[in-house]
């Protein structure tokens, strides 16, 4: 599998969920292709779902819900094609720097 930077996928539809656990902050970053098609408040809605869950110490549930909502939009605007390849890794990466 090819490992490309987020912004170098064919359809520019990559999404990054970034969690800074020690700082208790997070970001959701969508590339230009998905940002062009989702409604203006979409990322705010996903952010609100994460914040609601995170404030109730439901971190896994919040992240899962955010990823699920994002997947629904990706499926809507970028349906899987027969010859699709996964251009980005689905692995979770950790950085232990403090």
Provide tags for this entry.
98 residues, alpha+beta, Diaminopimelate Epimerase, Chain A, domain 1, two-stranded antiparallel ribbon, 40% helix, globular
How would you describe what is shown here?
- The chain has 98 residues and is α+β, with helices and mostly antiparallel strands.
- It has a domain at 12-77: Roll (Diaminopimelate Epimerase, Chain A, domain 1), CATH 3.10.310.
- The chain is built from three helices and two strands; from the N terminus they run ββααα.
- It has helices at 32-37, 42-55, 59-77; strands spanning 15-20, 25-30.
- A two-stranded antiparallel sheet has the order 1-2.
- β1 (15-20) and β2 (25-30) form a beta hairpin.
- α2 runs antiparallel to α3.
- The longest helix has 19 residues, at 59-77.
- The chain is globular.
- The termini are far apart.
- The model has no long low-confidence stretch (mean pLDDT 88).
SSE inventory with pairings:
Layout: E1 15-20, E2 25-30, H1 32-37, H2 42-55, H3 59-77
Antiparallel strand pairs: 1-2
Helix pairs in contact: 2-3
CATH architectural arrangement of the domain at 12-77: Roll
The rounded distance between the terminal residues' Cα atoms is 31 Å
What order do the helices and strands follow? EEHHH
| Whole-number mean pLDDT | 88
Percent helix range: 25-40%
Give the number of helices. Answer: 3
User: What proportion strand?
Assistant: 5-15%
- Cα shape: globular
The strands making up the biggest β-sheet line up spatially as 1-2
Low-confidence stretches: none
Q: How is the main sheet built?
A: 2 strands, antiparallel
CATH first level of the domain at 12-77: Alpha Beta
DSSP strand count = 2
Report the CATH topology name of the domain at 12-77.
Diaminopimelate Epimerase, Chain A, domain 1
Rg is 14 Å
* Class from secondary-structure proportions: alpha+beta
């Amino acid at each position: 599998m090819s490992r490309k930077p987020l912004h170098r996928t064919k359809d520019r539809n990559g999404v990054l969920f970034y969690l800074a656990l020690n700082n208790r902050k997070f970001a959701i970053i969508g590339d230009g292709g998905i940002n062009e098609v989702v409604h203006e408040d979409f990322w705010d809605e996903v952010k609100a779902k994460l914040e609601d869950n995170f404030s109730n110490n439901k971190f896994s549930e919040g992240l899962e819900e955010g990823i699920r909502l994002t997947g629904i939009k990706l499926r809507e605007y970028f349906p899987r094609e027969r010859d699709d390849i996964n251009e980005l890794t689905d692995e979770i990466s950790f950085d232990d720097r403090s």
